[in-house]
Amino acid sequence: MITAAKLSIIGRRLLQTLPVVVLSTFIVFGLLKLVPGDVAVTLAGDNASEQRITEIREIYGLDRPFFVQYGAWLWKAAHGDLSNSLISSEAVLTSIQRCLPHTLLIVALALVLALLIGIPLGIAAASRPGSWIDSFVMAVASLGVAVPNFWLGMLLVAFFALDLNWLPATGAVALSQDPLGALRHALLPALALASGGIAEVARQLRSSLVEILSSQQVRTLHAKGLPPSSILWRHGLKNVSVNLLTVVSLLANRLLAATVVVEAVFAIPGMGSLIVNAAMNRDFPVVQGVVFVMVLIVVTLNLLTDILYSVLDPRIS
User: Chief location of this protein (predicted)?
Assistant: First the structure.
């Protein structure tokens, strides 16, 4: 049940996110203006006359002061208008709507894999600290952190796609058109993306559980005759839930950023590919739109995490 106190916490968190979003968009907008070169010259062509370059500046508002340009862009963005691509003239929002589902599917699947594999590994290691199982899990976790995503992705393509022909090597399918095909295309990229997440979840969960299971409280529960499984599930995991939520939240943000490399390896038309191509072509409206949407996603994830904190631990406000 959502109480008045929890609604107050949610409202306070919402108010705190607004300055973060505005500041993020301002920094990105400003940094793009520092990129050397003239966008108007790029659009007009190398052999364009000075008059044509001046016309391009007037058409796209590039001759206006910086704060006027930023204010106009932010006002349109707040109303769902992220401008149009300078190269293709397609609405930036349309491009994002086409590419975002591919990225979100890969990130969501990678996060699920990280939890499904990392949590059992962390529990197994924490249940027998110092054993061969603990050493094995920590070795696997260290390997998962050390192996680059792009290198692991190429190995997965070579083995599962080219040698065994079990899964497609590149491309993506819309989830709304073919759910099974979309999952088959997203599985290898998600595995490559999830390797570091599996290691991080396993290591953090193992560390937190070992600390809890070695505490005086748990030793008292053992002395009272409670079975180890009950102590682990009802007391150990419950006490580390907040720490695990923090790990999952940070991991989701990192997975969003890491999709740029993974999408390039698997030729996936997602947000990473969209922003890389836009940056190479100096298509600033697309870069600004993609960053704006990614900031909104990250801020929303952080907001949900803060709300869940208060649900899992009422002492957090």
Answer: membrane
Cα distances (angstroms) measured from residue 300 to each of 22, 181, 285, 307: 14, 29, 22, 11
More confident residue, 38 or 141: 141
Q: What is the mean pLDDT of the chain?
A: 82
Name the CATH superfamily, with its identifier, for domain 95-310.
MetI-like (1.10.3720.10)
Q: Residue 106: which of 182, 186, 180, 181 has the closest Cα?
A: 186
Residue 25's pLDDT band (boundaries 50, 70, 90)?
confident
Decide if pLDDT at 113 tops 90.
yes
| Two structure tokens written together for 274 | 């969209």
Domain positions in the chain are: 36-80, 95-310
How many CA atoms lie within 13 Å of 20's alpha carbon, on the beta-carbon side? 14
From CA 259, how far away is CA 102, in angstroms rounded?
10
Residue where the block lists tokens 């999709």? 259
SS3 of residue 91 by DSSP: strand
How many other CB atoms sit within 10 Å of the CB of residue 276?
16
Q: Which residues pair with 91 in a beta bridge?
A: 84
- Rounded alpha-carbon distances, angstroms, from residue 153 to 96, 116, 262: 24, 20, 7
Rg (C-alpha) for the chain, rounded Å, is 24
Let me know: does 309 contact 316? Beta carbons within 8 Å. yes
Q: Is the backbone of residue 299 left (phi > 0), alpha (psi -120 to 50) or beta? A: alpha
In degrees, rounded to 5, the angle at the alpha carbon of residue 216 between the alpha carbons of residues 212 and 217 is 70
What are the pLDDT digits (tens) for 143-201?
888 888 888 888 888 888 888 888 888 888 888 888 898 899 889 999 999 988 888 88
Q: Which helix (H) or strand (E) holds 157?
A: none
In the block, residue with structure tokens 């957090």: 316
CB of 192 closer than 8 Å to CB of 152? yes
